[in-house]
Amino acid sequence: MKILVNPARGEWKSELARPVQKSKDIEKIVKPIMRKVKRQGDKALKKFALEYDHVSIKNLLVSREEIATAKLLVSEELQKAIIQAKVNIEKFHEAQQTPDLIMETMEGVTCMRKTVGIQKVGLYIPGGTAPLFSTVLMLGIPANIAGCEEIVLCTPPNKEGNIHPAILFTADLIGIDKIIKVGGAQAVAAMTYGTESVPSVDKIFGPGNQYVTAAKQLAVKKGVAIDMPAGPSEVLVYADESAIPSFVASDLLSQAEHGIDSQVILVASSEKIAQRVMQEVNTQVEKLARKEIAKRALENSVAVVIPNQDKAIDLINDYAPEHLIICVNEADEEDVVSRIKNAGSVFIGNFTPESAGDYASGTNHTLPTYGYARNYSGVSLDSFTKKITYQKISEKGIQNIGPTIEIMAENELLEAHKNAVTIRLNYLKENQ
Amino acid sequence: MKILVNPARGEWKSELARPVQKSKDIEKIVKPIMRKVKRQGDKALKKFALEYDHVSIKNLLVSREEIATAKLLVSEELQKAIIQAKVNIEKFHEAQQTPDLIMETMEGVTCMRKTVGIQKVGLYIPGGTAPLFSTVLMLGIPANIAGCEEIVLCTPPNKEGNIHPAILFTADLIGIDKIIKVGGAQAVAAMTYGTESVPSVDKIFGPGNQYVTAAKQLAVKKGVAIDMPAGPSEVLVYADESAIPSFVASDLLSQAEHGIDSQVILVASSEKIAQRVMQEVNTQVEKLARKEIAKRALENSVAVVIPNQDKAIDLINDYAPEHLIICVNEADEEDVVSRIKNAGSVFIGNFTPESAGDYASGTNHTLPTYGYARNYSGVSLDSFTKKITYQKISEKGIQNIGPTIEIMAENELLEAHKNAVTIRLNYLKENQ
């Protein structure tokens, strides 16, 4: 992790460049997978399970028995923790509900807006080294609150053909009963096209490796919506002399351990702080089980020293971090936070580690990475809904607004649009 | 427009299939355009203006003088109509503001959510046969309310190198001063990469032909967000015996005149109603200036007779129309409306023509077509914002929530995530 002192504005982009993602080669591998699942359905899913997960799956759908057994395999301590996290996440996402909007814009012209749950949603939970039951909470809870009628969860089986018990426990806890043993691009394909076991869905959520990401992009071309474009996870910590260096280092490392393509950025108000944090990083990283991953991620990473606060905030907004931790003295805190324009989620103060939001505080952990915080929001209740507008115009109302519409339509040379009003106005003239 | 009586559920999809869109060939034309604009900037834009718009453009940016002159060329009547529409659209979109959310999910754990305007947005307004000043209102007004810092408007010049005065008048009315004379895929390319005259933006909005649509899709690959996937416009009218056939016909035609690839669907509760509407369509279409376009669109269109209301509603939700007009007897109206799950915008009753929402009632006219009403909302204030979450945890708070995070992180095998909490809890133990 190199230290850059006061780099010129023109260098920000190149110095803080994120690891490049190659998508073309991956697409070439994923396209035939999508095609096979479309044509062969479950048969293809079982074939891919054998090929990629090295397991022969009889029933793709997880049975009630498997779910019941799973509960016995999750420690009481972990069950309690998951339930606590669920309570917090539910509170914060329930509070995101949008009230119906109804107003008369002119006399007799009533406009409305209602929020309706997307009918069928698919949640992808990756397998791999860790069982991401936290992501089951982050996606399943808002899907429930939104009133999605069908929630499908796809996740890859292990070599014994099982799903990690903590994932089954969590899914069951929030009432998801359609859990399918399928991972990778083939899971996304199944939710896109539908198979005998997997219903097709309207929107696909969830993280995944490059194959899953590529498959989600292809799903978009087939009319399925996705949560957001994906990229490796990242954190930016903005620290001044009030930050505790060992805390900052622990936050940088909790991002670095995610993967070798993760990026962590420290923006420090002085070289002294940057040096002290670096020392702590070097000490703490050695103790980590995933230290080899973290060290590789640190190679993509940089500490930037920017004494000027305005300039530091500009750099942060330019970079648009997925996670932003702000540890500045209390007098400045509110002002600095209020000037953040581009970030996925913001963690304020010395006692707010990113992992709080990753797991249990209540905010969602599915966030825009790779600079997409400029133009995308993280997953929220909104992600599982769409908003439909309505209008009802009375006889009086069309008489009020009709002439305006007629003139505008005429000037846009859309005669039939005008006629739709004129015919009504004439009818009212004749029948009054 | 053929009449189908009570088609089986299995036939809905094929009978109501939308006109196919070919994107591959278009992409081949658009890619080199994007590349040239990226490399040559304004020079490429001027070259394309010569090639496609048959005009030599000196200054791509519309001058203050041009805007001042435009105002003199717009009739007072049209000015008044545009101002009235603006008032209504502003009212309805201002009411869409989301209040900040702040809550303590546990003692000492404060979670927040704020709405922040996307910094730089680009609005594309097509040229062609009609000057779509209404779209300037529909995109520019919410962009303003959202607090977008930079709003760029691109629209193609005519053969004299001018922009239609009504477009300039409307843009000026809502305070957009960066109006660029550039159309087609090259406009989207300019807003994606930026040129000397056109700033790059974070999100691109607006309708357009197939080239514009293809360019927007390519822009997405470059990290720019877009409003929604595009498709030809469509309306579905659901009419029972209480509907006035001439009104229904006028609404069907006001959609059919949009383009030869538009689709209009009538769902009628009886064959008699369908027949009477068809008669009216055949009479009214002959009087239209755009009758050739409308007739071609009617070839893609179908009247479906479904006496059973439940089944009719199922068909509507399956089709997911961009515009849905509901003309049923008043006793059923509320119930029918409440059961609509998939639609862009809903128009209720005999005196609510679609053109009201297209122009002036207050709702937005940029809506999901082509079945995307299943998984996308229309453009609203939300489209111009992103929601950022925040959290601040106190010393007491991390002591409350810390153990939950530690257990979850440990079970996801993310040790550094756990450490970020442990190091803080230990610090507090030592310093208390």
Summarize the structure.
Chain A is an alpha/beta fold and 432 residues long.
Describe the secondary structure blueprint for this structure.
The structure is a homodimer of 432-residue chains.
Chain A: E1 2-5, H1 12-15, H2 24-40, H3 42-52, H4 64-73, H5 76-94, E2 101-106, E3 109-117, E4 120-124, H6 133-146, E5 150-155, H7 165-173, E6 178-181, H8 184-193, E7 203-205, H9 210-221, E8 225-226, E9 234-239, H10 245-256, E10 263-268, H11 271-285, H12 291-299, E11 302-305, H13 309-319, E12 323-327, H14 330-338, E13 345-348, H15 354-359, E14 385-393, H16 395-411, H17 415-430
Parallel strand pairs in A: 1-11, 4-5, 4-7, 5-6, 7-8, 9-10, 9-12, 10-11, 12-13
Antiparallel strand pairs in A: 2-3, 3-14
Helix pairs in contact in A: 2-3, 2-8, 2-9, 4-7, 5-6, 5-7, 6-7, 8-9, 10-11, 10-12, 16-17
Structural write-up:
Two copies of one chain form a homodimer. The first copy, chain A, is α/β, with parallel strands linked by helices and 432 residues long. Helices cover 47% and strands 17% of the residues of chain A. The first copy, chain A, is built from 17 helices and 14 strands. In chain A, strands 1-11-10-9-12-13 form a six-stranded parallel sheet, with helices on both faces. Chain A has a five-stranded parallel sheet with strand order 6-5-4-7-8, with helices on both faces. In chain A, β7, α9 and β8 form a beta-alpha-beta unit. In chain A, α2 crosses α9, α8 packs parallel to α9 and α16 packs antiparallel against α17. Chain A starts with a strand and ends with a helix. At the A-B interface, α5, β2, β3, α10 and β13 of A face α5, β2, β3, α10 and β13 of B. β13 of chain A pairs parallel with β14 of chain B, so a sheet runs across the interface.
